[in-house]
From TrEMBL:
Keywords tagged on the record: Aminotransferase, Pyridoxal phosphate, Transferase
Protein name as catalogued: Aminotransferase class V domain-containing protein
Gene source species: marine sediment metagenome
GO BP annotation list: glycine biosynthetic process, by transamination of glyoxylate
InterPro entries the UniProt entry points to: Aminotrans_V_dom, Aminotrans_V_PyrdxlP_BS, PyrdxlP-dep_Trfase, PyrdxlP-dep_Trfase_major, PyrdxlP-dep_Trfase_small, SP_NH2Trfase/AEP_transaminase
Protein family membership: Belongs to the class-V pyridoxal-phosphate-dependent aminotransferase family.
Annotated PANTHER family: ALANINE--GLYOXYLATE AMINOTRANSFERASE, AMINOTRANSFERASE CLASS V
Domain Aminotransferase class V: 6-286
Upper taxonomic lineage: unclassified sequences, metagenomes, ecological metagenomes
GO molecular function: alanine-glyoxylate transaminase activity; L-serine-pyruvate transaminase activity
Gene Ontology cellular-component terms listed: peroxisome
Pfam families: Aminotran_5 (PF00266)
Cofactor list: pyridoxal 5'-phosphate
Length: 381
């Protein structure tokens, strides 16, 4: 058989053909009116996806670079912060802060468990000197979406700022930055933004910018003030990833033409179909508050989880993601994120069914697909 590659992971995600083609043009110089025009259109489009009136800065890095930028521009050595750690990416906020000498109070949440705004209120009461709360919109390691709106309400009444990693969630699930009171929002290009890896985005509220003015942590390449000053001149401080910016303009055109509300609904339908599919063959979800970005599925008893992922990727070329430590071999993740359509869900579930039957799991072949089809058919427009 011809082995066709199916990218079904929560980042990188598939890129639309016309967006791929946009990178095949000759490179234009970045200090030109032509590039500035494209760049400003991109920053305007990003403001739409972020749901903000504030500037959105474009960094040449993966998403983690924007996370680091958020930390080093708002904090000073010894500042106290609260980090919500419900998985690998929440953990990363803590690691970045610790690397810079920030005093981290880490709140560990079981993977897949929700964390309520009341719990956050209690944490803040117990830690009144908190400068910032670090949270994750969609924890990609567990497929969980957190109550950012609730945290925003809590922090609107506090001195601390709310910093949100929206790298996999923004653009796929609602999180309007200004309306929900998010003070620093971070995003990456290779998830819902439908372009390859390499760009990261972030924006500061005026409450957060007051901290930027006072922050004394060391910074150079990721100094937010430089990005602000240069954005006023319609450019970036250093050479941007020109081709990626041009691709992002194309992809934002698609995002704007569909509209954010429709995109959220699209992800909801794909998420519902995926969940219905895996449940129909007796599998359980890891998360108690699963998002519409990806579905984290528990490996059923008696099945070798590592072999499952290896077979799906190696034999069927269906590139779902495995579980990360400590869930390696115990869980796998099917993404329905960015430029994925209804039939991508069917592809993932077909490969999953074929793999599971090969690994000796007993179920009726075709039932996951049938359940997913029913959801897709009902919702297709
Ligand atoms: C992918 C992801 C990241 C990491 O981004 P990189 O682009 O790999 O640096 C951070 N947080 C979340 C929630 C993610 O999904």
């Amino acid at each position: 058989m011809i082995k066709k590659y199916y990218l079904l992971s929560p980042g990188p995600t598939p890129v639309p053909e016309e967006v791929l083609a946009a990178a095949a043009n000759p490179i234009i110089h970045h200090r030109t009116p032509e590039f500035s025009g494209i760049f400003m259109e991109v920053t305007e489009g990003l403001k739409y996806v972020f749901g903000t009136e504030q500037d959105v800065f474009v960094l040449t890095s993966s998403g983690t670079g924007a996370m680091e930028t958020a930390v080093i521009n708002t904090l000073s050595p010894g500042d106290k912060v609260i980090v919500l750690n419900g998985g690998k990416f929440g953990e990363r906020w803590g690691q970045i802060c610790t690397s810079y000498g920030v005093d981290v109070r880490e709140v560990s949440v079981e993977w897949g468990e929700p964390f309520s705004k009341d719990q956050l209120t209690d944490e803040l009461k117990a830690n009144p000197e908190t400068k910032a709360v670090f949270a994750t919109l969609s924890e990609t390691s567990s497929g969980t979406v957190y109550d950012i709106q609730g945290y925003g309400e809590v922090l609107a009444k506090a001195d601390a700022i709310l910093v949100v990693d929206g790298i996999s969630g923004l653009g796929a699930t609602p999180c309007p930055m200004d309306e929900w009171g998010v003070d620093v929002m971070v995003a990456g290009s290779q998830k819902s933004f439908m372009i390859p890896p390499g760009l990261a985005y972030l924006s500061f509220s005026s409450k957060a910018w007051d901290l930027v003015e006072k922050s004394t942590l060391p910074k150079f390449y990721f100094d937010a003030k430089k990005y602000k000053k240069n954005l006023e001149k319609r450019t970036t401080p250093y050479t941007p990833a020109i081709s990626l910016v041009i691709q992002q303009k194309k992809a934002l055109d698609i995002i704007k033409s569909v509209g954010l509300e429709k995109l959220f609904e699209h992800h909801r339908i794909l998420g519902d179909a995926t969940r219905a599919g895996v449940k129909a063959i007796g599998l359980g979800l890891l998360s108690k508050s699963p998002g519409n970005i990806l579905t984290a599925v528990n490996v059923p008893a008696g099945v070798d989880g590592l072999k499952l992922v290896k077979t799906m990727q190696g034999k069927y070329m269906a590139y779902i993601a495995g579980g990360q430590e400590p869930y390696k071999g115990k869980m796998f993740r099917i993404a329905h994120l960015g430029y994925m359509g209804g039939f991508d869900v069917i592809t993932a579930l077909t490969a999953l069914e074929m793999t599971l039957s090969e690994l000796g799991y007993e179920f009726k072949l075709g039932s996951a697909i049938g359940a997913a089809e029913a959801i897709l058919k009902e919702n297709w427009e």
